[in-house]
């Protein structure tokens, strides 16, 4: 047994097709079949069931695949640590979120305290987040939902309350607290709807089972001006609020008017200097 045979086995398990696997590996089908037979003979167990020209990984194969995956994960961790030690790669981290406001909570403070660290942030969909965390393309994700996977740790780092932002010229600015149901017929402004970006108005409306009256969609910089000009409302969270001299925040009395924030990472991946500093910072910041 060797790493090459383990790699061939992984690809066979992925495709469950000798032709497709051999094409991917760029080796002949007989060579791949002979390798598999040799591996099974060394283990003493059949890893795939053969049906005519098809193969299907069996329970023996699934058990063996878990350990092969573990071997390659550890090799990746070893490579990452060697790169960090020899090439000073340990000062970079990558993260993804479904709304940039989550990172505005800590980003400036973290970078000021750790000037050697380089952070790459992106916005991607939930499924892509999970896949990228497992593959190692991402170090962390920050989202309003928990990512459930046995290879990942998803930790609740905060609970924030929704508020409604109105212009000081709006008659509703006389209220300090209302129910979202009482405001459901009011005109709202919001960012454009995108599948990969969390819109606060969609989250709270789904929880309330209400279809809001959105009269304007635009970029973030335009929304506050639109809210004033159109005398409209905007759903926000109770941090990073706009200028209190111009806008008023109405607290929501509904029990569902809250948003959980989760930090998720791959527990099996090697964590470089930047990642360790980041986890420590998040623990202190939200702890």
UniProtKB/TrEMBL annotation:
Gene3D superfamilies per UniProt: 3.40.190.290, Winged helix-like DNA-binding domain superfamily/Winged helix DNA-binding domain
Keyword Transcription regulation: yes
Keywords from the UniProt entry: DNA-binding, Transcription, Transcription regulation
Matches recorded under Pfam families: HTH_1, LysR_substrate
UniProt key word DNA-binding: yes
Domain HTH lysR-type positions: 1-58
InterPro entries assigned to the protein according to its UniProt record, in alphabetical order: HTH-type_LysR_regulators, LysR_HTH_N, LysR_subst-bd, WH-like_DNA-bd_sf, WH_DNA-bd_sf
PANTHER family: HTH-TYPE TRANSCRIPTIONAL REGULATOR BSDA, HTH-TYPE TRANSCRIPTIONAL REGULATOR YBHD
Annotated family: Belongs to the LysR transcriptional regulatory family.
Protein's UniProt name: LysR family transcriptional regulator
Organism of origin: Dehalobacterium formicoaceticum
Organism phylogeny: Bacteria, Bacillati, Bacillota, Clostridia, Eubacteriales
């Amino acid at each position: 047994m060797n790493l090459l045979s383990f790699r061939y086995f992984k690809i066979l398990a992925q495709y469950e097709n000798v032709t497709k696997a051999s094409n991917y590996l760029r080796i002949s089908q007989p060579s791949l079949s002979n390798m598999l037979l040799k591996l099974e003979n060394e283990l003493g167990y059949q890893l795939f069931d053969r049906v005519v020209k098809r193969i299907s990984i069996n329970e023996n194969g699934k058990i063996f695949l878990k350990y092969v995956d573990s071997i390659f994960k550890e090799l990746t961790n070893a490579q990452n640590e060697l790169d960090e030690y020899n090439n000073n790669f340990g000062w970079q981290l990558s993260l993804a979120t479904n709304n940039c406001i989550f990172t505005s909570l800590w980003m400036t403070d973290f970078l000021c305290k750790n000037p050697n660290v380089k952070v790459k942030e992106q916005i991607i969909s939930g499924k892509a987040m999970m896949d990228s965390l497992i593959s190692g393309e991402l170090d962390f994700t920050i989202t309003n939902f928990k990512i459930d996977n046995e290879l990942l740790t998803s930790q609740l780092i905060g609970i924030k309350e929704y508020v409604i932002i109105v212009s000081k010229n709006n008659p509703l600015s006389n209220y300090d607290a209302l129910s979202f149901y009482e405001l459901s017929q009011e005109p709202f402004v919001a960012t454009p709807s995108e599948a990969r970006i969390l819109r606060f108005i969609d989250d709270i409306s789904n929880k309330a089972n209400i279809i809001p009256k959105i009269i304007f969609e635009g970029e973030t910089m335009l929304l506050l001006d639109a809210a004033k000009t159109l005398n409209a409302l905007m759903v926000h969270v109770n941090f990073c609020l706009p200028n209190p001299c111009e806008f008023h925040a109405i607290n929501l009395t509904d029990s569902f008017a809250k948003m959980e924030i989760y930090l998720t990472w791959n527990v099996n991946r090697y964590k470089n200097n930047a990642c360790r500093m980041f986890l420590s910072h998040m623990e202190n910041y939200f702890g």
